[in-house]
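Issue: ligand-bound run for arginine - logging full I/O for the record.

Environment: standard queue, default settings, no custom constraints.

Inputs:
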Amino acid sequence: MEEIKQKIAECIVKALTEKLESGQTNVTIEELRDCLEIPKDPCNGDYAFPCFKLAKVLKDSPANIACKISSSIETTEEICKIEPVSGYLNFFVSSENISETVMNKILSEKESYGSSDEGSGKNVVVDYSSPNIAKPFHLGHLRTTIIGHAISNLYKELGYNLTKINYLGDWGRQFGLLIEGYNRFKDEYDIEKDALHILSDIYVRINKLAKEDESIMDKARENFKKLEDGDKDYLALWQYFRDISLKEYNRIYEILGCEFDSYNGEAFYNDKMDEVIDILDKKGVLVESEGAKVVKLGENEPPCIIVKSNGSTIYATRDLAAVLYRARTYDFYKAIYVTSYEQIHHFKQIFEVSKNLVDKKYSDGLIHVPYGMVRLKTGKMSTREGTVIYLQDLISDSIMKAERIIEEKNPNIENRALIAKQVGVGAIIFNDLKHNKIKDIVFDLDEVLRFDGETGPYVQYTYVRTQSILKKAGFNIDEININDINLKLLYEASEIDLIKELSNFEEIIKKAAESYEPSVLTRYIIEVASLFSKFYNDYPVITENVELKQARCALVYATGLVIKKGLSILGIECPEKM
Ligand code: ARG
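Outputs:
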């Protein structure tokens, strides 16, 4: 918690300036505070200061610095023990005050606990989801949507001004082919019935034909040329493909609870690429290579193609135009792109070339967030083998299964359909965000829907338990004067462990945002839930002792609040009952 870190930083500065007479080091309290880490192993204290950060200014080894500071630092009311361990200074927070400090903060800040305003006045753009239109939304797009949504929420929580962009793949030669297929086969289908499956079916069919018959490819090229030149009928058709695609995607976005501020996709940049080519040319970095125009990127790197030898632009050219446009339009502090790791090379190139297009402050803010693949337990995902699982089916299955489980557990529950949706969708999101994002994940619906273990339903259920305890105890935070709660009564080991964990919420949000790693928050929520279970097993909440009951209820309330808010940042709703 910031307050405690502040105290620790003050102690260190005091030791440095008064005792070690190193006032000339000029390290500020703020700098020291930001260096404090939360040790993985609680044996190493509640906070640790890595002394190598001072090695340069103090011209000494981290181990020596740790020993010197620890012998001259004084314990305080808040910090009961300080230990030097291999170059780290470990701080142990006294449990006497921690209950009051942390709990008072949570109880007074309520829903805004964990938020901060460090990003105020700064703009962050997140480019995520971004499916290629006229194709169904499949499992592969699930990850970018879920991770991008969570990252947006994390930055929002830190006070940044967010612009969420769905950069639709809505341009390219394939639309020439699709138009050809559509014109040939449309009468065989009732498109409106299942537009995306039908369009992708048409695309697969025409693609096959084109392989056998070269003239179809010529026709497709011609079609796309017409489209590029703004042919009215072709544009209308393209618009139709885009509209029906978006309509279906929006159904999924609604289920997942995510929204976008802009759907400017690749097509939007069709008329904005000339300027990019012009700027690169004027800078003298655009060179001819085998008929194409490219930007060279160092000795052993392949060049970035800007204009192909046949005169057409590519995916990269449009992304460069988007960088330029977004810098001007959104004046971003960071522009974050969430895609699978297959595009690592693409973004490396784009970011490098962008240095020639925009100010350094913008090119420094370009960030690619790659993630791993999704595999189904039952087999690989492949269009060719016909085992593609569409997201829509997966979500429906998960909701149906959740409904069956809930029905078994609690047959008379009200709002069963809504709860099944919250649990079924939450389970999928939670599973996705539980692992380090670069790892490939395996999808096993039975596993993600388990009510025990590290799953969405488990933490949702923990939240529901907090609410039912509070209800049973008749505890309503809005009817209580916080000052009347005797928080000093929370001193048992499992209470303190839980409170300390709750105190880390704000830092966890910051860490997850800075590392673009929502799993930091997911794992934290699992930890809070498991510490809560331990506390609840160890001690009765509803006791005869009214004062104690109230203090423990306050802790139950605080736990519920952190779990619910944490899940909501991940994009997961919490049922009140289940
Ligand atoms: N449409 C691309 C795909 O489905 C992802 C686009 C990512 N964003 C970007 N600015 N390139 O693979």
